[in-house]
Design brief:
Elements (H helix, E strand, L loop, with lengths): L2 H7 L2 H9 L2 H26 L12 H4 L4 H11 L23 H13 L3 H25 L4 H13 L12 H17 L2 H12 L5 H17 L8 H29 L4 H8 L2 H4 L9 H10 L3 H17 L2 H4 L3 H17 L6 H4 L7 H4 L5 H23 L10
Helix pairs in contact: 3-7, 3-8, 3-21, 5-6, 6-7, 7-8, 7-9, 8-21, 9-10, 10-12, 11-12, 11-18, 15-16
Keywords: Endoplasmic reticulum, Glycosyltransferase, GPI-anchor biosynthesis, Membrane, Transferase, Transmembrane, Transmembrane helix
InterPro entries: PIG-V/Gpi18
GO molecular function: alpha-1,6-mannosyltransferase activity; GPI mannosyltransferase activity
Amino acid sequence: MSATAAQTRIPARWRARYRLTPWWAKVAFVWAASRLVTTSLVLAMANLQEANAWTGARPRYADFANMWDGRWYNIVAIGGYPPVLPVTPEGQVAENAWAFMPGYPAAVRLLMEASGAGWAPVAVFVSVAFSLGSALLFYRLMRRVLDHGTALFSVVLFCVAPLSPILQFGYAESMYLFFLTLALYLLLERRYAALFPVIAVMALTRPSGLAFALALALHVAYRWITRGRDPFPPRERVLSASVAVFSGIMGLAWPLAAWAVTGSLTAYTDTELAWRAPYIGYQELVPFTAWFQSGVWWLGMPLGIVAVLALILAFTMVMFTPAVRRLGVDLRFWVAGYALYLFAVFFPQSSTFRLLVPLFPLLGAVAQPRSRLYRAGVVLLCVAGQWGWLLICWRVDGADWTPP
């Protein structure tokens, strides 16, 4: 059915009412509808959940939404961080709270103090509230580079994406995406001074300061190169370079804080390395090696190396496709900067899907085809992906080695 034929089936007054509906109401409707779908899937999965280390069988929603790392954030909110790093019987640094930044648990703790409610419901509320804010900001971000219809469908994909259940769990992702989206919007608006407080909160919510610093450095370099056709006045040069340096400093702030409290220069990195020890044992952090180590662990030699090189090539090709190029240089700078950061420090395993969420501006490229059949198919695949992610990564089956 053509778009014109479809429009003739819709009463004119409905079409007029839709056109007059403000953008924020459309986004809020998309968000609310998506939360109904996701919540239904989560409740269905909770009904299948057996007793585990975090909950009893068939837990309530708030309890089910606070498993896994939600317990670590709870520990941070209630007890803070250990002044002495815990160690394993072999003398290696064990998993501990320093891996989890203070932004999200601090926000939840403040609301807990104000409301008198417990961790689980407040954590869910904070995540849900930030998810709505993120959806509204994401629309504004996409409208900087796309038309209204495509920007709104980008929001649809953001709200129904396979990892979207995390937006209403006791995790920091929802709050982090809010500040990341705001930072990207301010960057596109070239409101450099306003970026300082946003980056400060963002970098203490999820590790991202160094990746954003790289994106900002690329932005400054690009503006300098193109200053002949796009003026780059001295004030903006100073502000943009300063905020890039500030983002880099904030990227190092949490490791420095862990050092100051524990007395160990490598407290933060040693803590992060503890999470990959079950796969490859305790090793030193050598930048740009973890993906190859993971490839070999999962696929063996030489297929693991070949697979990683193929991923690098595929990602590079995607970045130069017409749909991604339409997103503009600054959003591509962020995607490239964050991808390089992950490649430098992250060991791929089941949490990789969650760590890829900050690449969400690429949804603007996925949203560009206008075929109704294509768009309906993508939405259905995303909803099916939610169930798959909940089943594989979130639900605990008693012998689980796929943490979210």
